[in-house]
Request: fold
Amino acid sequence: MFRLGKGLPLLFLLLSVMLVAAGCGTNGAENKTEPAAQETGGHAAGADMTATAATDEKNGETRTVGHAMGKTEIQGSPQKIVTLFQGATDVAVAMGIKPVGIVESWVEQPIYQYLRNDLDGVPIVGLETQPNLEEIAKLEPDLIIGSKLRHEAIYEQLSEIAPTVMLETVYQFKETVKMMGQAMNQEDKAQKLLEDWDRRVADFKTKIGQKAGVEWPQEVAVLNFRADHARIYVSGFAPDILAELGYVFPEYQQQEREKGQVVIRLTSKESIPSMNADLFYIFKFDDSGDGAVQKLYEEWTGHPLWKNLDAVKNNKVYMVNEVFWNNGGGIIAANRMLDEIYEHFGLEK
Reply:
């Protein structure tokens, strides 16, 4: 009895050790199972997190955009945009973006009438040739659109305010659309605008080719009268669009185009013959000031050399809206210009 009773505590001790060991083994198995369950649940949660992260990455991703002044890093899809030339303002409106700051228009100040409703309340930050850096900074933009032609000297200062991209010039509206699409992370919208434009150009070419009594292509000159001289625009916004539509230019003007010339300035009426073409498009002018433009226009168009020009003799002289044909500089203005050409030929738009 004594030996058996004395051995019981040892037996109980051994049984206790075995039970503890068994319990530890069970806990170990449970611990291995729980992480597996967490991992399965983790994959489901991880998928949601990945999708969210992808969206956040798209909205917050940093992209490098090359432009006329170098390369600029832009994060996400900028919402507060300042446009420093007319074509950029036009394109922003076309893309459904209301800038937080714009420069004053060249005429119809402070904003062109065709853009006025869309830009109601937008602050003016100075002139296209002299934007106000302090006013721009107050707006805290996340993107500035400028042009090397106008703003090369202040590019560094603009870049200190916000990421800044520069177009080479101010009148290549297709390049403006492409660049702004990249910079604003709105490339789909930009592509749609350009595709719509290409369709309209193709439509015009088809209809003008089928128009009875119209010889095509036609030789064209784009003219403008100022207070002290006349101008022939041989390249730039309107001439480049006309070339795309299939118009051709007189030999002298074509040669100047190929040299990279934009405007030929004429200061003497003896140079009137250099304007000669089958058809003239002349920018309308508002001479509500001292009448100097009207006076020069009457002197030149009353001259015998003017009356001997082909477009004048054939009654193919058209006055056109200067804002659409020259000042606007964007894709909306380009479409308005094309509207006028459809009307001149009596084509259905």
User: Anything to note?
Assistant: The domain at 211-344 is CATH 3.40.50.1980 (Rossmann fold).
